[in-house]
Request: fold
Amino acid sequence: KPKGIDDVPIVSFTLWTADAERAGFELQQVSRAIETELKRIPGTRDVLTIGGPGHVIRVNMDTVRMNAHGVTAQDLRAALQLANASQPAGSLVAGNQEVLVQTGTYLESAEDVRSLVVGVHDQRPVFLRDVADVIDGPDQPAQYVWFGTGAAAQQRGIEQQGMFPAVTLALSKKPGANAADVARAAMQRLDNLRGSLIPDGVEVTVTRDYGKTANDKAAQLIGKLAFATA
Reply:
């Protein structure tokens, strides 16, 4: 559908880390948690995370356990598709021993997937956990985000030099909302989340601030009008 000015993010934050033990998936998880907090700010429209490998639940089927419980790979796929009709259940991979599942409206977590009934054996329900191992983790990445520092980084208080894994959190405002107020509130909320949702070792850098730009231009315009009417 056609896009308007309010579809353009007014502020973006890049989450990055110099910690070699962390990667894009962990940054993505942190960013998704922050999304919920930022959506509570009055005037916020859309909040989304850009980058990261995505999230997928892998179902590794155990043929021995499946035979013992009288279920087939097709039984598992059918149960997954029925329970999660709003999302594709993926295709059989890895020698027909693995199914990739995207969480959705009905299957929201790995525990939901483990608790799914996939059949009946000896008049007892067969749960997915009885016949398969369910692993929650990153998908194969389709895009990458990196944060690079240069000569001007120290002017912004950034001591590290190099290229670091990152994700970007972008926020747009509702029509009629003041861009400067929404951007300022978002920055304050992120500052309050340091040490809780934002763990030590994860850095946050403002990489876009149209709220400040709009505020500066408004002040400049008011100054010119005052000069013209003086």
Q: What stands out?
A: DSSP finds seven helices and eleven strands in the chain. The chain has two domains: 5-53+142-229, 55-138. Residues 210-229 form the longest helix (20 residues).
